[in-house]
Write a structure and sequence with these properties.
The protein has 13 helices and 12 strands. The protein is α/β, with parallel strands linked by helices.
């Protein structure tokens, strides 16, 4: 029997669905498991032994790509599909691809496309259980197990990272602090840029032997460059220079990570890198990375949680987190 899972579309959600993927492999060990995932997100699923095949799909469909994708999926003759997405469009694609046994949450008016309509009511707690509940439904039982969300970095990739860092003046063995000052969702989820800069300046003074790397996507490059401009010492701005996979591999060599409620923060947790995460308009209890070596800084606000990409008021949910609080949390984990 073969099953295809439709991955979520955000990095953080991709990390949070990994326990469900691992549970599926344990509960259905004889099944061949494929993962359909947006091309830009496929990097987080590389080298995972639970996944037999990664099927990249376009980040944005064109008519030609859509029909080519349907033809490709039909040729694979999947017995079952599981939707970790909530959209009508993802359910329609799987059905048009000939997957009649389709399981997913009954949302976005797509219930008539699903063979197994899972009610979306009720609070599953942390978001990783939102995905895990779908797999438990198929198995007809609670898993009762704890499944990791860890990523797999190969020795060859570690070697590449060492060489890349050495090219930028960071020799092997030098401790590295990684900082990701942006958030792909929007500035509402990002701590104040000037405070990130103060953290970097203070950390450099207190830890002169530490290298600091700044990470972010091509779209975030200019904003992060403004944070990094004119900073002293070994502050290396890699924003916009790396693919997602290369960013993951570089992060695997870091001793500590500081960031917002973002995909890279989830990646740090999945790499077991100690982290400080700054939360504002979202709920850490539902979407924060899980793990032992983490510090979540969250003061909230009367208007939170919200879904705004840009704060329409005074951004007090983020401005209430001080530079001193971030430095204290980072120092605790560093030691």
């Amino acid at each position: 029997m073969s099953t295809v899972i439709r991955s979520p579309n955000w990095i953080g959600d991709g990390i949070m669905c990994l326990p469900a993927i691992r549970a599926h492999k344990e509960l259905f060990p004889q099944e061949r498991l494929s993962l359909a995932v947006k091309r830009y997100l496929a990097d987080i699923f590389l080298n995972l032994p639970e996944i037999d095949e990664i099927i990249p799909i376009p980040d944005r469909w064109t008519a030609a790509a859509y029909f080519a994708g349907l033809k490709n999926f039909r040729a694979k003759h999947f017995d079952r599909g599981i939707l970790f997405t909530n959209s009508f469009s993802s359910a329609l694609f799987f059905r048009l691809a000939g997957i009649s046994s389709l399981s997913g949450y009954n949302r976005d008016g797509r219930g008539w496309l699903l063979a197994d309509k899972v009610p979306s009511s009720g609070d599953p707690g942390h978001h990783q259980y939102y995905y895990l509940r779908l797999v438990e439904r198929l198995a007809g039982k609670k898993t009762g197990g704890s499944y990791p969300s860890g990523l797999v970095v190969t020795p060859a990739e570690h070697g590449w990272a060492a060489n890349r860092l050495e090219e930028r003046g960071i020799p092997a063995g030098q401790p590295i602090l990684a900082i990701a000052p942006a958030a792909a969702y929007g500035s509402a989820k990002a701590w104040l840029p000037e405070r990130f800069r103060l953290v970097i300046e203070n950390w450099h003074d207190a830890h002169p032997g530490c290298a600091i790397v700044l990470l972010g996507s091509q779209a975030e490059k200019d904003g992060i460059a403004a944070v990094a401009g004119g900073l002293p010492g070994r502050v290396i701005n890699l924003a916009g220079e790396l693919t997602l996979r290369q960013t993951i591999v570089i992060m695997a060599r870091c001793r500590l990570f500081i960031g917002n409620d973002s995909g890279l923060t989830h990646i740090a947790a999945a790499l077991a890198v100690p982290l400080v995460a700054i939360f504002g308009p979202t709920e850490p209890g539902k979407t924060a990375p899980l793990g032992r070596d983490r510090r979540l800084l969250h003061h909230g606000a009367d208007c939170a949680p919200c879904l705004h990409r840009v704060c329409p008021t005074d951004h007090r949910c983020m401005s209430s987190v001080s530079v001193g609080a971030v430095l204290a949390a980072a120092a605790e984990l560093w030691e």
